[in-house]
Specification:
Elements: H1 2-12, H2 16-35, E1 49-59, E2 62-70, E3 73-81, E4 84-85, H3 94-107, E5 113-117, E6 130-137, E7 143-145, H4 146-152, E8 157-158
Parallel strand pairs: 3-6
Antiparallel strand pairs: 1-2, 1-5, 2-3, 4-8, 5-6, 6-7
């Protein structure tokens, strides 16, 4: 078959070589895309909301996420929870900081799929972290704002940075 293909290439000139390889690689890409396993149905979200996977909880107000910014673009970065401040895990606040961190770890299992809502300004905080609101699906299917829930349950305070 390959010998026949090269005979066809000889008959049609030099331009047919790149065309041959282009067609070959495009057909291979289509076959592999069709055979790839499909992800579970994504959550219905808003314009500034992005599906994210939890990598790890750093502390009570900081998480590392893999954010699906576009169908084939995944951003791995550190996010600061917008509008709140949790106690630090160092210094005099350490006991409260560890409680806050543990609370957030209980809500965000590693590799859990969540939604991060990024403000329209695409802001970054003082230390270069993205600012965002974390949303998780509740038992009734409604999205729960973890930033507000942390404040309501006493694990963080309202603060704007």
């Amino acid at each position: 078959m390959i010998r026949k293909a090269f005979n066809v290439l000889d008959d049609h000139g030099w331009w047919s070589v790149p065309v041959f390889f282009l067609v070959f690689f495009l057909s291979a890409a289509v076959v592999s895309a069709r055979s790839a396993p499909q992800d579970p149905k994504p959550l219905v979200i808003g314009v500034r909301d992005y599906v994210a996977t939890v990598d790890r909880v750093v502390d009570g107000d900081t998480v590392d996420l893999h954010v699906e910014a576009w169908p084939t673009v995944v951003l791995q970065d550190r996010f600061r929870l917008l509008g709140i401040n949790a106690p630090e895990t160092r210094g005099a606040e350490r006991p409260e900081g560890l409680k806050s961190t543990d609370w957030l770890k209980d809500k965000l299992a590693p590799h859990a799929q969540i939604i991060v809502r990024i403000p329209a300004k695409n802001e970054r905080g003082k230390y270069g972290r993205w600012l965002g609101t974390l949303l998780v699906p509740g038992a009734d299917g409604q999205l729960i704002d973890l930033n507000k829930l942390m404040v309501a349950e006493g694990f963080a305070k309202v603060a704007n940075y």
